[in-house]
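User: Study the chain.
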Amino acid sequence: MKFTKMHGAGNDYVYINCFEAGALGDAPKLAIAMSDRHFGVGGDGIVLICPSEKADARMRMFNADGSESEMCGNAVRCVAKYIYDHGICRKDELKIETGRGVLTLNLSTNGGKVDRVRVNMAAPILVSSQIPTILPGDPPVNATLDVGGRQIAVTCVSMGNPHCVTFVDEVTDDWVLNIGPKIEHHPAFPRRVNAEFIQVVSPNETIMRVWERGSGETLACGTGACASVVAGVLAGVTDRKVTVHLRGGDLQIEWSESNEVFMTGPATEVFSGEWSYS
């Protein structure tokens, strides 16, 4: 089976062209095997690029632990690059079906290949029961969460997948690697949650690290960056246009007055290969 390794700001996945590969069988098992950085290809998960009846392509993504996620902002940019660069659909504006619905992506090209993509990530979901979380508020803003004996203030948002955002004085390993997994599995989040830790540099610039549900720390999270800006506006600590500095690169996020969130960032193809499995 052929695959392509791609990343968006360091958030790396193994991409499989299901226009050619067809049905894959046990996708969660395949995700676990291929994502292993020692015995597999290595990645934060796998992404299936599939035909769609209502868009140019459909994206399905499975985390490194085999769980299926509703949405990934970095991955959807890479899907757009793949279907353009590989000739599946060569349009400057693409529609991609995701677990969040059909998203619109605008492509910037250089030398006939896509290098940056602007995604309309749609409106944030701010109703607690739909995020989902049992914390009070629609959405919870600076709500108190008891984690590992600490009382921390969190703001919760869904971008089609759930996020718990914590604003900190400095983003440290202790926050991300110690508190992050505790937040992911906290009983306040019935479907687990992505945990973002944000250091505000200025109203239009932040530093972010993320502990992703099902994958651990990743170098970037597009939906998390979007959620962090929505949370920043709600908590009164950022403007609506923010450059988010992640470990793998920068994303430009805008929560427009029309309530739509726009994300702009890179998409990079690394290499292709063939996977042999029984």
Notes: The longest helix spans residues 222-235. Residues 240 and 255 are 5 Å apart (CA to CA).
